[in-house]
Design a protein that fits this description.
The complex is a heterotrimer of chains A (664), B (282) and C (196). Chain A contains 16 helices and nine strands. Chain A has 664 residues and is an alpha+beta fold. Chain A is globular and about 80 Å long. Chain B is α+β, with helices and mostly antiparallel strands. In chain B, strands 3-2-1-5-8 form a five-stranded mixed sheet, with no helix packed on it. In chain B, strands 4-10-9-6-7 form a five-stranded mixed sheet. Chain B is elongated and about 90 Å long. Chain C has six helices and no strands. The longest helix of chain C is centred in the C-terminal third of the chain and has 33 residues. Chain C is globular. The chains are: A alpha+beta (664), B alpha+beta (282), C mainly alpha (196). At the A-B interface, helix 4, strand 8, helix 10, helix 11 and helix 12 of A face helix 1, helix 2, helix 3, strand 7 and strand 9 of B. Bound molecules: heme-A (2 copies), dinuclear copper ion and copper (II) ion. One heme-A (HEA) sits at the interface of chains A and B. The site of copper (II) ion has 5 residues of chain A, from helix 8.
Chain lengths: 664, 282, 196
Amino acid sequence: MPHGGAQMRDRHGRPIGPGARVRSGEDLGTVGRLEPEYGTLTIIVEGRTGKSEKMVRASAVEVIEEAPPPQAHPATHEHELGFVQRYIFSQDHKIIGIQYLFTSLLMAAVGGVLAMLIRMQLGWPGTKWGLAAALFPGGFAGGQMKPDFYLAVVTMHGTIMIFFVLTTILSGGFGNFLIPLQIGARDMAFPWLNMMSYWLLVPAVIVLLASFFVSGGAAGGGWTAYPPLSAIPAAAPGSGLGQTLWLIALAILIVALLFGSLNYITTVLQLRTRGMSMMRLPLTIWGLFVTAILMLLSFPVLFAAAIMLLFDRLAGTSFFVPSGVWVGGRVLEHAGGNPLLWQHLFWFLGHPEVYVLILPAMGMVSDIMSAHGRKPIFGYHFMVGSIVAIGLLSFLVWGHHMYTSGMHPLVAMGFMTTTLAIAVPSAVKTFNWLATLWRARIHFTAAMLFAIGFVSLFVTGGLTGVFLAQPPVDIYMQDTFFVVAHFHFVMASASLFGVFAGIYHWFPKMFGRMMHEGLGKIHFWLSFVGIYATFFPMHFLGFAGAPRRYYAVSPFEFLRDLQPLNVFVSLAAFGLGAAQLLFAANFVYSLFRGRRAERNPWRATTLEWEAPSPPPHGNWGETLPVVHRWAYDYSVPGVVEDYLPQTAAAPVPAGTSGGGGDSA
Amino acid sequence: MANGPPRDSARTTGLLLGGLILGMVVLGGVALTIYARGRWWLPPLASAHGEAIDRLFYATLAVTGVVFVGVHVLLALFVMRYAAAGEGRALYWPDHRRLELTYTIVPAVALAIMVALSGVVWARVRLTAPPADSLDVDVRAEQFAWLVRYPGPDGRFGRTDPRRIDHRTNPMGLDPSDPAAADDIVSRDLHAVVGRPVRVRLRSTGVIHSLFIPAFRVKQDAVPGVTLETWFTPTREGEFEIACAELCGLGHYAMRSKVIVQSQQAFDAWLGEQKPSLGSGQ
Amino acid sequence: MLASDWGGGRSPFGVGWPKLMMWLFLIQDTLTFAGLLTGYGVIRLSLGRWPVQGEVFNLYLVGFMTFILICSSATMAVAVAAARRGEGATVIRFLLLTVLGGLAFLGMQAYEWTHVIGEGARLFTNPWGVPLFSASFFIITGFHGAHVSAGVIYLLITARRWARGRIQPESVEIAGLYWHFVDLVWVFIFTLLYLL
Ligand code: HEA
Ligand code: HEA
Ligand code: CUA
Ligand SMILES: [Cu+2]
């Protein structure tokens, strides 16, 4: 099939050139960009409200005026869009990615402050906190934190960190920014939907944060919101309006994320530039792509469950509330529901969701490790295979969160098998990273340090998952701080380190400036030590049997001796939190004052580094880049430079049948 | 690196990072675990089936401990050894099928063994029915307390009805119209006999709770609307705390009770002193 | 490699992105319905008793509604085929027929809802005993009805844009995908909610 370079023709078969004036339906516009490969063109339409862009199919327009001489119209035309369209209601994937990034970082700061509140209470229960009490008057009584406020803080901390920080920063931030750039496209398939995705995130955030200020306070049923607790307003102060807003915020967020995933999947499948076969995609893209599929398949189910729970709360239905429930001294009207139904629906989402938080980080770490280690990623095919395997298996393990819920013991055995099976692809990834480091030439940039830290933290956290996966052991560990330690290592540590690595690595491309390396390294040392100091001792809290979501451990004799450990954890957590201020300072400083970045400061191979820093609207000049090799040609023998960009046409020297040569 | 740091600093950073991984993560982790073994550890075991669980726990600790140390030592060695210093290039080594298959298959086999071992333990603790001479108790969770009921001389539990719950006169909500309920005994603590299996019927009035007896390695959610069963055999006399392990609201952290394990005589004496709940006003 | 379907530079499925995206959206929507229907199934199985639907609903009416919806799928198929052949007027005519089918369906559904509400059914209670019966009925048929309404608007917009020559036959096809999906879901709902 003839492809590429083809002359684009309008409805009547007349050729369209760059800058031609065309009519599409009622609109009259100038052709901004032609994409013969896809038969699409972007036209700039002048309307009452200013100029806007539209993507149309060539065969739907008619040419009114032939193109002027080519040099009169540059390929990029960002100067033609107004400020609002460029930076606020932008349809440019890079701006949307950065919007997601900023929003997520702000939410991380909120979630971090909440974490500090948790640690204040757990370290020194019953202490009077003047300043915090002044800041959150509703949450403190006589200077002491109230139990309902503690639960609201824990719930919001978990919700914000999982859904509004890591999900949004990885898929929304890095996904939007990197997917088109790394596959050689000009934008997402459907930029308008992309913009909508971000502008749905904003109301979701507002609704969620607003719930702190309603009567009864924010939701207090945990990020898992198990009914009946979350379904019955009388069951707890946090089950009032706060819980309703929590559900609404989540429902809006789900729609936003689904819009996003539709775009990511379609874009990766359809808009790869010439030569960018699936098996030449950088692992970052593989991670983001499988993540988008996971989101597409799991979030709708949570959406349905959230709708049912909302109806239970607002309209008196009883999907999740059984008959004869006695709360607050009286028997409720509800009848016939099943509380475990929620747990199944929730974890059917919830478990894939945790891999949504790790797969993109795994991909980014692989790419960063390869670029800063000047060595091809080891075992690319196995890396891709393990990402896909983890994605598939993640739909079959949700029951491991429910071993103590009363499920049939044989079912539990099935879930144990699938859960432990996930450790196999995870092992492959771990050992592949190690093999990548072997005989590498490691440049210890901040990005690389965080990537190496990621491996350590992921292994530590993953191994505790092996305890939890076995029902007999999990019976003891379930809902103790051992679980808290587990998921803070894999998620709050490993994924977070992946995010930091990604920010240090791609900041130059996003903003055209370098981040301060020295500060970045200090940030790494403090975070690495701080994270181990904070979360490692939590394992022992769990061994000792300390349940999670406890306002204080003091009522129990068997937990009394844990207080010193809690104090230590709290102190470490404050140190860890303070270290993040360094990051925030570095981020803001570098945004305005950082050293100007070159096009390819890390001398990396992937496509985004072929575009200017920051890339202009449309990313590429007149023509799309063409890909000739996989993304990991570092230190190729017989080549002068120690890397070959994906666009380099020179053949791979004989005898080094790389995992991604043309033969792949 | 075009503008990277000078090269000998890369070596220093590598040594520092490797040292940190060896010193803090590996040595620190192992040392802290050994220290914690004497202080912050599983509470002393007091039930029969807990033995198999603890053994499984230690086996897992050993396996994961070895992997933990092994992976971190390799990681530390590599970052120390392969810093970008001096001349020379990284090795162009994109893959090696045999090596990759090895480290796919070896963990897979290890994990399969683990599945088998814990499957056996699981079958032992969960798939076996409690012996016929078990002590039957009915445990009911509410916000935020545990209530334990014994069937009384007739050996049968009477009907309950949440509509009849009254905190002072009838906390269990016993139904007086059921004759079997008349002699039911209700207590705040769970009294059990050493060496005699206890079969717990677990219920909840309102939200989900979870019966957690750390020393027995027992945890079972109490789900409203259904009755779930669990059983265990206490092996030591003494008092053992019961906690709630599923978030149930404000008082979740204080939902405390205890198991009192006694000799058969002491238990019989205690039971003899108890008045039936209905009509006792307590 | 450069020439293969998956080699980049072209669509591996030979379809434009809008159609692929519609497929993905439908997968996503299927799962939303699956979530709701699973919830309904679990509740119903765990309850054990359920009103006899034949006594509550007029199954002739519902059967007729189903018939109308299936007919509208047929007219939609004709519109799509006409669009491919470029027969402008036929496309409009059959799109409008499809819209008519959708509206008829919605009208009958509104009638059915009014009837059931008139008998005393509410979201959280109903005269036939099991409260979750009416809850699942209203939520599931309501969610589907919302899809049909959205579909009617979508088809009207498509017809208008086709009339003005602003869209390709592919866009009509995509609208058709959505419409067939909504019909297919109804068949499931009809079976699970009314018949079983
Ligand atoms: C990024 C997120 C993330 C990731 C990647 C994982 C990864 C894993 N998780 Fe985790 N998990 C969570 C986030 C995550 N988890 C969260 C948030 C919760 C709690 C939710 C809540 O209740 O609030 C949770 C809870 C949770 C539970 C339920 C605990 C309970 O509530 O009782 C279980 C039980 O099976 C479990 C298991 C696992 C396993 C087996 C893995 C595996 O994928 C790990 C695999 C990795 C390795 C094993 C390490 C590398 C491997 C090797 C070096 C090879 C050799 C190893 C051996 C041979 C042993 N997790
Ligand atoms: C991504 C997930 C994530 C992250 C990063 C964290 C981070 C932290 N978490 Fe938490 N946590 C959860 C997810 C996460 N957590 C979840 C899901 C729960 C369960 C909730 C539930 O039970 O329902 C939980 C629960 C939880 C508990 C248990 C409470 C209980 O059960 O009683 C504790 C207790 O110590 C805790 C502590 C901490 C600490 C000290 C940090 C520290 O790492 C925090 C350090 C601070 C930061 C990481 C902030 C970083 C800020 C920036 C990077 C911003 C930079 C800003 C700009 C540039 C503007 N968390
Ligand atoms: Cu009861 Cu927690
Ligand atoms: Cu899980």
